[in-house]
């Protein structure tokens, strides 16, 4: 029944109020097509709201979300790959000028790297996905060998750096970065403080954006 549809009031409010407010913008984006300012790769975590933390408008961000904001290395013989397809589309079709990889504090995916997940067919893809960060896990453990919040926080930051490295395995990304027409950015969003740090490859450190 219609009354059981989740967020029904929100959908009705959008149609009656919000859509009317931005109707001309939506029509412009339909007629002219999208031209996003950045590809924003972040975690599926419900506590992250890309548009709010960046102050962006409709059509500004081409967003990819997944568990742990991870990016599988380029592998052309992989039959199906949504993340890879989105990266290629954003870079080689939409020609975005920037890619932002945004990790965050208290990331369940990063913490799960250190947990013994059950051999359950219902989470078989979760376990396989987390293998992307095997190197990150080993590197973090070399610095902090015991499970604690500091280890998880280090993992969250190392995870961002690793994904930036994985981005450069994509031919289109590598070509445009070398041409100077594409910039890569690593962000660490501290949920409990509302702060964002950026990764500086020259110092190999994260620094506050503001």
Strand order of the largest sheet: 2-1-3-4-5-6
Number of helices: 8
Average pLDDT reading: 96
- Bulk shape: globular
Rg:
19 Å
Percent range for helical residues? 40-55%
Overall SS class: alpha/beta
Strand content: 15-25%
Quote the distance from N terminus to C terminus: 48 Å
Q: Which segments are poorly predicted (pLDDT under 50) over 5 or more consecutive residues?
A: none
Profile the largest sheet: 6 strands, mixed
**SSE order, one letter for each helix or strand:** HEHEHEHHHHHEEE
DSSP strand tally:
6
Descriptive report:
Helices cover 43% and strands 18% of the residues. The protein contains 8 helices and 6 strands, in the order αβαβαβαααααβββ. It has helices spanning 8-32, 50-54, 82-92, 108-112, 124-130, 134-143, 149-167, 171-179, and strands at 38-43, 61-66, 98-104, 183-190, 195-200, 205-208. Strands 2-1-3-4-5-6 form a 6-stranded mixed β-sheet, with helices on one face. α2 (50-54) links the parallel β1 (38-43) and β2 (61-66). α6 (134-143) crosses α7.
């Amino acid at each position: 029944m219609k009354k059981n549809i989740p967020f029904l009031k929100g959908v009705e409010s959008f149609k009656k109020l919000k859509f009317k407010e931005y109707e001309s913008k939506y029509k412009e984006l339909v007629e002219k097509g999208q031209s996003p300012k950045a590809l924003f790769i972040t975690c599926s975590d419900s506590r992250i709201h890309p548009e709010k933390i960046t102050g962006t408008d409709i059509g500004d961000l081409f967003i990819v979300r997944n568990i742990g904001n991870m990016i599988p290395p380029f592998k052309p013989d992989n039959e199906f790959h949504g993340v890879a397809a989105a990266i290629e589309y954003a870079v080689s079709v939409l020609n975005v000028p920037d890619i932002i990889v945004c990790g965050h504090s208290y990331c369940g995916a990063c913490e799960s790297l250190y947990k013994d997940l059950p051999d359950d067919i219902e989470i078989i893809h979760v376990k396989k996905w987390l293998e992307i960060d095997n190197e990150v896990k080993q590197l973090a453990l070399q610095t902090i060998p015991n499970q604690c919040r500091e280890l998880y926080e280090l993992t969250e930051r190392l995870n961002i750096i690793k994904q930036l490295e994985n981005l450069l395995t994509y031919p289109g990304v590598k070509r445009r970065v070398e041409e100077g027409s594409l910039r890569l950015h690593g962000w660490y969003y501290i949920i409990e403080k509302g702060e964002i740090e950026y990764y500086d490859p020259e110092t190999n450190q994260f620094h506050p954006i503001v």
